[in-house]
Amino acid sequence: MAWVPALQADPAQDRQAQKAAVRQLQHYVAHHTGSLTQVVQAEAGFSFGLERHVLVGKIDLLRQADGGHELVDFKAGRSAPAALEQVDA
Asked: Using CA of residue 6, residue 9, residue 15, residue 19, what is the dihedral sign?
C-alpha cells in the first residue's frame, strides 16, 4: 500500500505525517505481534444511515477481541479537510 498525500498538503507536513504513521504502525506491530492472527480485515470500508444522512468511511484495522470485534483507527497527524461533503440519504 502506498502513502497518499493529503489534498493541498504542505510537503514538509505531509512527510512528517508519513513518518508518524510509520512509527505508529511499527509500535502497534511490536506490541501486538501475538494477536496479529486475530486481524479480520484491514482498510475495511463502511457506510450506515444516521438520521437523514449516510456516514461513510474506512476502518484501519478490524480484529477479533474478547468475543467481539475491536476497531483500530491509526492517526497520522493530518487535519480534517476544510470542507466535508454532505450526502443526503
From this structure: negative
